[in-house]
Design brief:
Immunoglobulin-like, 31% strand, elongated, five-stranded mixed β-sheet, alpha+beta
């Protein structure tokens, strides 16, 4: 038994296989880290409220800037810094704003809540019927709530135009990816490396 243990310990193919396993796991870790950058904004269309309700107008009229709305709705949108660092205005490419299309033209911003104990609410406007987050400082853990006036339901639709330099903008209104898609590369690399270890050691005996 001692001889066998020594032969296993001295087997060069075993250590070659272990190096292969280590390289595979290192590559998998790098892949996972790349899928979760330090800079990340998460955007979500949380809810849409029909101001007239299912019963219809019942004599109630809603106007916005002097125009009567036929199907007035309020959409609640959140934008959260989900990363590990503050986001600066310079991290928006060319200083372009982040645009959110709600599936129905936005008429105006009713309210913006900072969601952070010490940071002000970022500038949010409407541009060409879309909600526009101005390129600005967005501190870590800030989650902004935006109330938007619409003349029609959104249908739960949210489309995002914009990006971050060396970062990611995620649409939280879409179903999340299954966990196994996030870790499939790691699992695959581990299984292949384990198979190589077994094959190399068996071949070296």
């Amino acid at each position: 038994m001692i001889l066998l243990a020594g032969e296993w310990y001295d087997n060069g193919t075993f250590w070659t296989a272990m190096v292969t396993l280590f390289v595979g796991l290192l590559a998998a870790w790098a892949q996972l880290k790349g899928n979760n950058p330090k800079l990340r904004l998460g955007c979500e269309l949380v809810a849409t409220t029909d101001l007239l309700g299912p019963a219809g107008a019942n004599g109630l009229t809603v106007t916005h800037n002097g125009a009567t709305l036929t199907s007035p709705h309020i959409a609640l949108v959140t934008i959260a810094n989900e990363g590990r660092r503050d986001i600066e205005g310079s991290m928006f490419p060319n200083g372009d704003p982040l645009l959110l299309d709600l599936g129905e033209p936005a008429l105006g911003v009713l309210d913006v809540q900072s969601g952070h104990p010490s940071a002000p609410a970022p500038p949010v406007t409407v541009a060409a019927g879309k909600v526009a987050l101005t390129a600005t400082h967005f501190p870590r853990k800030q989650k902004v709530q935006i109330s938007v006036v619409l003349d029609g339901p959104t249908g739960g639709v949210l489309a995002i135009t914009g990006s971050l330099v060396n970062g990611e903008v995620r649409n939280r209104s879409k179903p999340p990816k299954p966990w196994w898609l996030e870790t499939k590369f790691l699992i695959f690399a581990t299984l292949i490396s384990a198979w190589l270890i077994f094959g190399m050691v068996q071949g070296g005996q």
